[in-house]
Amino acid sequence: MDVMRSVWVLSVVALAVVPGVGRSAEALPTYNYDMHCRAVSGGDFDKDFKCGEAEAAAYAKLQDIWASVAEKRKVECHNVAYDPETGKGSYARHLQCIEKGRDK
């Protein structure tokens, strides 16, 4: 594992242990997006890394808008972004779902 990958993995772990994240319906859910990125990248390191960057950016944007999103939409989009059978989740998918809902 090279240094860049190690730094990226540590940043993923840091996001997962942010106090209060994912503890209530009002809080932003905690997703293991590393599993999601590995699946969509097909083992390609560059794609995996770019996916991780997109997930981190989506997480940051969701943090900024979370309080203004209707609870019903949060739940609907969580169901789109998270697969309870595999544990894979995607902040980018959750954000995309919320943004599409704003057009309605």
Structural notes for this entry:
The protein contains five helices and no strands. The protein is an all-alpha fold and 104 residues long. Helix 2 runs antiparallel to helix 3. Helices cover 63% and strands 0% of the residues. Residues 1-24 have low confidence and may be disordered. It is globular, with a radius of gyration of 14 Å. The chain has one domain (3-101).
What's the short version?
The protein has helices spanning 3-16, 33-41, 45-65, 71-81, 91-101.
Estimated share of beta-strand residues: under 5%
Low-confidence runs (pLDDT<50, min 5 residues)?
1-24
The description of the largest β-sheet is: none
**Alpha carbon gyration radius:** 14 Å
> How many discrete structural domains?
1
Amino-to-carboxy terminus distance: 44 Å
Total of DSSP H or I helical runs spanning 4+ residues: 5
Give the topology string: H per helix, E per strand. Answer: HHHHH
Mean pLDDT metric: 81
| Estimated helix fraction | 55-70%
Structural class: mainly alpha
Number of strands: 0
The shape is globular
List the helices and strands and how they pair.
Blueprint (H helix, E strand, L loop, with lengths): L2 H14 L16 H9 L3 H21 L5 H11 L9 H11 L3
List keywords for this structure.
mainly alpha; globular; 5 helices
